[in-house]
Design a protein that fits this description.
The active site is at residues 104, 108. With 272 residues, the chain is mainly beta. It has helices at residues 3-21, 174-177, 237-250, and strands spanning 23-26, 33-35, 43-45, 51-56, 62-66, 73-80, 89-96, 104-110, 119-125, 134-137, 147-153, 157-162, 165-171, 188-195, 215-226, 251-254.
Length: 272
């Protein structure tokens, strides 16, 4: 075999190997998810299974979950929130396992009065332990158009992303600090819209106004990319600069500033 032929074969094998590292799955929102019984009449699914809407009114909210569980994957969904007055409304996209010592990775969107920014609340639970909250005032109107929200979950780190740009990184500190990190429990994807007006907007002081109901959240193009055990999500300097900008200009709550040092030991360790 000539050198050029060998190189072509090697390149083809490398391409095949790279394709096997991460397998991307476009989820059918008809076939691949279960609609929650508590509000199934408030769910509408497109005929092609690519999009789905969840609604909330005075009678009930609604939600769905994937039938399959996943471990170490990237989870993408495009989401458009209910417009206008949405104080007290909580819209979610999150991962969770089951049981009292469950793992969970949360995107929660907390509604507001008309003209005030929607709040994005993020949190992580590992083996039933949470208290990893970081919260941001969104710098755009999430009801005007679809935006892409992503959770990247690898053995090394969890990355929260908005429109394909990272806004938060949480690293695995199991070995160096003996802190729990989700590594063993597969998780399902969940989404929901529900009445959280006892806490969601200004500590519960601003309530849902039912004259604006139904509140409707639109989800589309749920995509799951499964990773190999050793695969990671490297961050560029541009990524790091963007995270710093978001934290400086838009973060309104950081768990690192809220708890005793012993409970947040990882906050003294550089992220990168």
């Amino acid at each position: 075999m000539s050198l050029s032929s060998s190189l072509r074969v090697a390149a083809a094998l490398l391409f095949i190997c790279n394709c096997l590292v991460a397998v991307s799955i476009a989820t059918d929102l008809v076939k691949d998810v279960d609609i929650d019984e508590w509000g199934k009449e408030h769910v509408k699914v497109s005929e092609d299974g690519a999009s789905l809407s969840l609604s909330l009114d005075k009678d009930s909210g609604s939600g769905f979950q994937t039938k399959e569980e996943y471990l170490f994957s990237r989870f993408d969904v495009e989401l458009k929130l209910s417009p206008g007055y949405s104080a007290g409304v909580v819209t979610t996209f999150y991962l969770s396992s089951l049981g009292t010592k469950h793992d969970e990775i949360d995107f929660e969107f907390l509604g507001n009065v008309t003209g005030e920014p929607i709040t994005l609340h993020t949190n992580i639970y590992s083996q039933g332990e949470g208290r990893k909250e970081k919260t941001y005032n969104l710098w755009y109107d999430p009801s005007e158009e679809y935006h892409l929200y992503s959770v990247v979950w690898t053995p090394k780190r969890i990355v929260f992303m908005v429109d394909d740009k990272p806004i938060r990184v949480h690293n695995n500190h199991e070995k160096d600090l003996n802190l729990p990190y989700p590594t063993k429990q597969p998780m399902r994807v969940y989404a929901s819209i529900w009445n959280g007006d006892d806490w969601a907007t200004k500590g519960g002081s601003v309530k849902i106004n039912w004259q604006y109901a139904p509140y409707v959240a639109h989800y589309r193009n749920l995509n799951i990319t499964e990773y190999e055990q050793g695969e990671d999500h490297p961050l560029t300097q541009e990524d790091k600069d963007y995270i710093e900008m978001v934290e400086t200009e838009h973060m309104i709550y950081n768990y690192c500033d809220a708890y005793e040092k012993e409970l947040v030991r990882e906050c003294d360790v550089p992220i990168y």
